[in-house]
Amino acid sequence: MLSELFKGYPDIKIKDIKINSKEIEDGDLFVCIKGVNVDRHEFISEAIENGAVAVVGSRDLNLTVPYVKVENPDRELTRICREFYDFSKLGLKIIGVTGTDGKTTVATSIQYLIGADKCGYIGTNGCSCKAFQKDSPNSTPDATVLYKFFKEFADAGCKYVVMEASSEGFFRHRLDDLEFQSGCYTNITWEHVNIHGTFENYVDCKVQLARQTVGNFIVNLDDKFASKFIEVNQNILTYGQNEKCDLYIKDYTITPKYTYVTFIYKNNEYSFISPLLGEFNVYNLACAFLVCLSMGFDIDELIENAINIDVSGRLEMIDMGQDYKVMIDYAHTPNGIKCLMEFVKKLNLKRIIVVMGSAGERDYKKRPIMGKTVLEYADYAIFTYEDPRSEDPYNIAKQMVSEISEKDKDKYEIVIDRSEAIKKAIDIASRDDIVLVLGKGNETYEKLKDKVIYFNDIEESKKWITERLNRETVVE
Question: What's the whole-number mean pLDDT along residues 355-383?
């Protein structure tokens, strides 16, 4: 009832809560939050025409349906979704993961370590548990989606939910009043300043997870921003390559297929094998393990489950019998790209060929850094579009190559069509080369100027590998 969500208002039954006027159905409540480029107040008429029985907004308006004026619709949305889905009675323990890079890997690893029958996941790779797999509109979705997921997890028998708690999620009040039973952060580097205004604001939104964590908060002691989190939470546990850490990364060996890791926890030494590769993933594993240990899970069971961890779109190797390697990864920040390239360099392959872009309407200052970083490691790079949105993809690509030195001018080209860029990279690959397709991972869309199209780097890569294999077979 509307009267249960807002005292003093009519006893009107509310079927659902929506923020998109086009999705409104008869009986829904329409909330006018402000998006990145849109103000939902402009779509009230459409919402009412589609069946909205009440509207929540912040302007002075006279409508044909009950109208609730509030100071901040974004904050109000979180509150009413909590009440509408009766969140307090679901009994879920929420685990939050924040950081610039590694959120998806840590969150997915936690789900694998606990078990998908007991733990749900919400993040870049969607919403999933043993009972179902669904798409998610954002790494940290808005409250109308988030609390619906919580209800579905509880109905599926989950007791835990691990979620990517992005800085934008806190900035847009999607996580207001949510208590996390455990939280952690991976690292912080330059990112999302276009949204937060300053890097300091970005860091503060990350730190907000520690403020809202009522249990143990897990800190990467090797990251220079560790003290920011330690200052605001009294229940800190640390991980890293410092012997003083609660979980000490003593040693690791990385092969092309597995990583052999040794941790020390509570004066005991534990060794295990993981399919996650790279030093950055050793840190991600340490973070995931310490979160689970802090919540009382048995370390022997965690070690047993670690071998099965599979993070879609992260260091995902595509093997269709070709004599060169193709890897898909989500790396889209300067630090993420640097860490990935350092790992790939150690594989001692012949040439590294990279396909990448940079998202439109996002932090443009990182673009030349990304381009320069790639060419420090790669033998050849093809710059293409990656969710250009309203920006000109060619201008984005030009920004990415703007600081590449003169000596590297012959080491790259611009191919705007992403499918053609992937095809070109695969066509020029020789035996024992590696093609890296970066930025999108397993995402299934491209956001263009006037539409969103279906696009998946993994599927595109498989298509062009198959096409080349078939072509070469015919020639032979």
Answer: 92
Average pLDDT over residues 313-318: 89
Give the pair of three-digit tokens for residue 25: 């159905």
Q: To the nearest whole number, what is the mean pLDDT of the chain?
A: 92
This prediction has a pTM of 0.87
Phi-psi region of 395 (alpha: psi -120 to 50; beta: other; left: phi over 0): alpha
- Inform me whether the pLDDT recorded for 105 exceeds 80: yes
Q: Is the predicted pLDDT of residue 196 greater than 70, yes or no? A: no
Q: What does CATH list as the number for 316-475?
A: 3.90.190.20
Tokens (6 digits) for 213:
């964590």
Per-domain residue ranges for the chain? Answer: 2-72, 87-306, 316-475
**Rounded alpha-carbon distances, angstroms, from residue 396 to 108, 196, 299, 417:** 31, 21, 47, 13
Evaluate if residue 192 carries a pLDDT over 80. no
277, 323 in Cβ contact below 8 A? no
How large a percentage of the chain has pLDDT more than 70? 98
- The CATH-assigned architecture of domain 87-306 is 3-Layer(aba) Sandwich (3.40)
Residue range 270-300, pLDDT digits in tens:
999 999 998 999 999 999 999 999 999 999 9
Q: What is the pLDDT of residue 193?
A: 59
* CATH code of the region 2-72: 3.40.1390.10
Do domains 2-72 and 316-475 share one topology? The answer is no
